[in-house]
Design goal:
Elements (H helix, E strand, L loop, with lengths): L12 H6 L10 H30 L8 H29 L2 H21 L12 H59 L9 H4 L1 H17 L7 H8 L9 H7 L1 H35 L7 H33 L1 H30 L3 H25 L6 H32 L5 H32 L11
Helix pairs in contact: 2-5, 2-7, 2-11, 3-5, 3-10, 3-14, 4-5, 4-7, 5-11, 5-13, 5-14, 9-10, 9-14, 10-11, 10-13, 10-14, 10-15, 11-13, 12-13, 12-15
Length: 472
Amino acid sequence: MPTDSDSAEHYSSFERVLRIFADVQPREGVTCAILIGNIFLILTAYYLIKPVREGWLAISDIQGLSKLEIKAYSAFAQSLLLVGIMPFYALLAATLSRRKLISAVGGTFAFILVLFWLTQPGLPFEMMPYAGVVFYLFVGIFSVTLVAQFWAFCSDLYGAERGKRLFPIVAVGAASGAVVGSWLGEQLVSLEAVNAFDLTLFAIAPLVAAIALANWSDHRGTYGSPSEWTTNRWNEPAAPTNEGAYQLIFRHRYLTATAFMILIFSWVVASGDNILFGVVQESLSNSLADLNTTPEGFGKALQEATTVFYGDLYFWINLFTLVIQAFFVSRILRFGGMRMLLLATPFVSLAAYATMAIAPILGLIKIVKVAENSSNYSVNNTARHMLWLPTTKEMLYQAKPTVDTVFVRLGDGLAALTILIGTRVIHLDNKGFIVVNIFLVLAWIGLSMYLYHEHKRWSAAYVENSPLPVPK
């Protein structure tokens, strides 16, 4: 097995290029590239359909609710669905091999995308009731489930030592996939023959390709010559025993703290997104006021304008995410360690919301959301996934997907509850919601500090490729 002491001539030319971004060792380059391509394709598929979600939701009216409330309450509904779905996912993980699990979940999502394309307004019905809300729920589940599953597989394939070195560069695939997906979506909808809803069909191609790459990387292992340990994993269930996701999370304080840290940061980010969505809808409605006399024309114009705005927003977020992920994350980890990786994003959020509290206007909010989200999708995402490296297979395939789905969406749900109480009970304005977020960020910082110390303790107890003596 290659080690850090291998001489320079053992590196391929491709591996020398990869070493610009992370500490890639000899013979690790090909599998690393496959995994980069895998998450690249998953994020490309997601960012093709994400603007469709916002546009479809913009024309989904529910009597008595504002656009902001519809978006926020839909996010809360996602968390309720996931609470019921994830025990079933945990059962699948305890039954299927990791390769079959990835294929089954990805294939199911591809099939559902076809069904949604068939329910778009005008095909076969003019407007199916609540279809936009249902699609919003699906896209939220699609994104967190596939991404969580990928990183669980990555942790399983690499183990703690290689994962710590290679996760920053693998995550470059996620950042670049998001950039390409958002850019490609903009280009496709600009074509006369393509409407926004057709992006759901275009997303199927990268999703199917991602499944194929996952199977390939599972087959070849880290170095291309699978060890006995790797070949044994081909036929074993992804999670060798079914301990139960929620039991695992609440049995170990490390996992409990991880779950609540993710809940808090999701609450912060979702609240910021809700504030932005409300400002965007108000601004666009004012700019399209001359179309108010023709509801059909107004609705179509609002949908297209919302899709274009978010397409542009996601492009800039993803471009900065790519730059940070490619050139800064591995260096932050190298020089600042896990502590810096965990704390960088909450301090960016603290600065962002303090700025928004002073001047809560659309242009400025857009800029600080680009800063916050790009840091979240690069630095914070890498830190979140690295927290799971010193854990068992059951924790990876049962607890991690549950934390990365249920607790993420519970954070979204609490953001929805914040909107409900803030708008209906205590009548907060945008500045009031921003102040709430500042207090949440302070709690996020406290949990991140605790997790840094717990991660050190768990890492010391971890022995790669052998059962983990789990701390309590």
